[in-house]
Amino acid sequence: MNKAHPCTRSRKKKPQLHEWLRLALLVFLVSTTFHAHGQTSGSGTAPPEIGPLLYLAPSGRATLDNTIRELLQEQLGKNVIIRSFKAGQTGQDSGTPVVTIGSDALSQIRQENHKVPVVSLLAKPALLDSWASRSGSNVPGVYQGAPLLHQALAGKIILPHATRVAMLASPDSAVLYEDLLSHLADYGMEGRIFLASNRDDLINTLKRALQYGDFLLAAPDPDIYNPRTIKHILLTAYRRNRIVIGPTQDYVSAGSMAAVYTPLDAMAEKAADYLEMLFKGEKLPPPNYGDRFAIRVNRQGAQSLNIPVPANHKIIEDLRKLTGHSGELRHD
User: Fold this and answer.
1) Cis peptide leading into 222, omega within 30 of 0?
2) 257: closest CA among 265, 266, 267, 247?
3) N or C: which end of the chain has fewer CB within 10 A?
4) What pLDDT does residue 168 have?
C-alpha cells in the first residue's frame, strides 16, 4: 500500500481551517449587527422615557374635554400619560391622580373613593369648597371665574361715576358677597345685598336692587342666575338702564354687560402646577383662581344703552393697576 506524502496531508487540512474562520467571522458580524440594531430605534434614537400617569374624568362635552386634555398635555409634557377615567376604577386604583371636568365628574369621583387624589376644573365653587373643606378630602382646584372684586372693579371702570353696587342673593347664597362688602370702600364704592326669599319674590327684589345700585353685580349663584331666570333679570335691568356685571363669560352672550374670567389655558397651567406637586408627594393648597384673567364685553349692549365703554385693553390696564395683579390680564 502506498502511503500518502506528508505534504499531501497538510494541504488537505488548510481548507478546513479557512472554512472555520470564515464561519466564525460571519457569526461575529451577524451578532454585532443585531446587537447594534436592538440598541437603537429606526431613527437611531433611544425610545422616550415614560413618565407619570393620570386620569381625566370628562364633563361629557367632547370639545371642552378634548381641549382641556390637549392643554394639560402641553403643560405637562408628552412623557406624562393621560388616560380617560372609567366609572368604578377607583376600587382598584386609588393612588393615581384624577383631573375632573365639571361638577358631576367631581361628585362621581369623591363618592366612589374620597381618598383618590383629585384636581378639579370647572366645578361649581360651592361644591368645590364643600369637598375641599371636608376632613381628609383635600381637593385642589381652579375656580372658573374671577374674584368678585375684579368683577366689581370692571363695573367701576365701565361706569366711572358708579359708587353703589347692588347684589341679588338668596338667604343661602348671601355669604358669597360678604367678603367683597368689606373691600368696596377701598375703591370709593359701597354695596348692599338684596335677598330674594323665593322665586316669586325675585323680580320685585331685583327692582329694589336696581333702584339702589348703579349696576348689578352677579356672583356664580345658580339659585338666582340660571337659564330660567336670566332672561327676566336682564330685561328688567335693561328697561331701567342698568347693567349687569357677571356672573360668567357665558352670560355676556345672553346680555350681561361684561365678565372677568379665567381662560382655559390659565386653568390648565394652574392644574399642571397642582399635578406636579402630587407627583412629588407635596402638600396641596386649597382651591384658587388661575394666575391670568380675561374679560369679555358686550359691545352691542353697551351701544344700545349709550354707554361709552373703554377699549378692552384699557379696561385691562386699569384693572391691573387697581388690583395690583402681577399676572397677565387679556381681553376677549
Assistant:
1) no
2) 247
3) N
4) 97
Q: pLDDT, tens digit, for every residue of 191-213?
A: 999 999 888 899 999 999 999 99
Which three cell numbers mark 249?
A: 363669560
Instruction: Specify which residues 17 forms β-bridges with.
Output: none
| Helix intervals (H) in 60-171 | 62-76, 103-112, 125-133, 148-158
**DSSP states of 220-286:** S-TTTSSTTTHHHHHHHHHHTT-EEE-S-THHHHHT-SEEEE--HHHHHHHHHHHHHHHHHTPPPPP
Angle at 130 between CA 127 and CA 133, to 5 degrees: 150
Could you report the per-residue pLDDT of 25-79, keeping only the tens digit for each? 555 544 544 444 444 444 444 445 567 999 999 999 999 999 999 999 999 999 9
Give the C-alpha distances (Å, rounded to integers) separating 34 from 42, 44, 45: 13, 14, 16
Task: Kindly report the CATH class assigned to 148-263+292-331.
Answer: alpha beta
* Beta-sheet strand order (sheet of 81-84): 81-84, 53-57, 98-101, 118-121, 141-142
